[in-house]
């Protein structure tokens, strides 16, 4: 039997390119490039999750954002097939990690994270102290930033334009068969929302964010309306807000997730605001209002519900900072959550929220 020869990981055969993460306040973090070498600007956000980078990178709610992963090891299990992603491509604008692992080991892995990032033209830097960087953002609040190599580019604020229009579907998609007919307004929906619904005896029609659902000629009978997650500032989604308003006027059972929570709030007359820094991870504690029950949830948001609309009560609050995590109408079948009941990545503890909504479809008939 031959003795395996284990060589220490040697990156010397790769030519090492260095890049910089430049923040709008002037701070600069040097790093080693392991993605596509092209400058990108966006809002710098951090995720404190420990797993799930393939799902996270493909979550369309990250459009326009440069993502820092605070968990120090990234890449060690490679990249699975697209059927395990949350959308058909990477949506972050750039990636910052502490230690990139270029030697993945996982049965489902098809390539290295570096190869994937290069293929999808996403820049990535390995910088030494992601902890210092994250603490800096936490103290100063959300910051714009850019990953640059040789030539400089201007800063870009993704919250100043409609991001949803860039990621929503452009065609109507009918999926599954089932006892209940649901319409989903796709603001950049994570695929696991679709999977969670389709395994629950549902016929699902996925619609563009601005689909004129209640305009004559477009009406068809459905039992409930869903509004997905999505990137950017909810206040740009005026057509979606109008559609939700009509649904509420007609007492159509309505359920929102993340961006959907914010859009239901705006449609019902409440308000949203930009948080100092967002919640992004799979370890966000949410307490169900009026109970001692606390759920560990997956999240990815930088805006939040401020003023809860009339007729609604807070459904969940974040146990870390007391921010709103969901609203529910006191007598009608209207509800939404700021966290992700579909998880992906993360704990599935709140998947019951889908069942809760589907039960409401029965009782509200
Ligand atoms: N994941 C989401 O739907 C996020 C909603 C919104 N873009 C925010 O950052 O708050």
UniProtKB/TrEMBL annotation:
Key word Nucleotide-binding present = yes
User: What are the protein's GO molecular function terms?
Assistant: ATP binding; carbamoyl-phosphate synthase (glutamine-hydrolyzing) activity; glutaminase activity
**Record's keyword terms, sorted:** Amino-acid biosynthesis, Arginine biosynthesis, ATP-binding, Glutamine amidotransferase, Ligase, Nucleotide-binding, Pyrimidine biosynthesis
Q: Which CDD domains match?
A: GATase1_CPSase
What is the catalytic activity of this protein?
L-glutamine + H2O = L-glutamate + NH4(+); hydrogencarbonate + L-glutamine + 2 ATP + H2O = carbamoyl phosphate + L-glutamate + 2 ADP + phosphate + 2 H(+)
Report the pathway entry: Amino-acid biosynthesis; L-arginine biosynthesis; carbamoyl phosphate from bicarbonate: step 1/1; Pyrimidine metabolism; UMP biosynthesis via de novo pathway; (S)-dihydroorotate from bicarbonate: step 1/3
Question: What does the record give as EC number?
Answer: 6.3.5.5
Q: List, from the UniProt record, the residues annotated as the active site of this protein.
A: 258 (nucleophile), 340, 342
Query: What enzyme class is recorded for this protein?
Result: ligase
One GO BP annotation is: 'de novo' pyrimidine nucleobase biosynthetic process
Q: Which residues hold L-glutamine?
A: 61, 230, 232, 259, 262, 300, 302-303
Ranges for the region named CPSase are: 1-180
Which Pfam families would you find in this protein's record?
A: CPSase_sm_chain (PF00988), GATase (PF00117)
Q: Where is the Carbamoyl-phosphate synthase small subunit N-terminal domain?
A: 17-148
**Gene3D superfamilies hit by this protein:** 3.40.50.880, Carbamoyl-phosphate synthase small subunit, N-terminal domain
Q: Which family does it belong to?
A: Belongs to the CarA family.
Subunit comment for this entry? Answer: Composed of two chains; the small (or glutamine) chain promotes the hydrolysis of glutamine to ammonia, which is used by the large (or ammonia) chain to synthesize carbamoyl phosphate. Tetramer of heterodimers (alpha,beta)4.
State its role: Small subunit of the glutamine-dependent carbamoyl phosphate synthetase (CPSase). CPSase catalyzes the formation of carbamoyl phosphate from the ammonia moiety of glutamine, carbonate, and phosphate donated by ATP, constituting the first step of 2 biosynthetic pathways, one leading to arginine and/or urea and the other to pyrimidine nucleotides. The small subunit (glutamine amidotransferase) binds and cleaves glutamine to supply the large subunit with the substrate ammonia.
Protein name from the UniProt record = Carbamoyl phosphate synthase small chain
Source species of the chain: Tengunoibacter tsumagoiensis
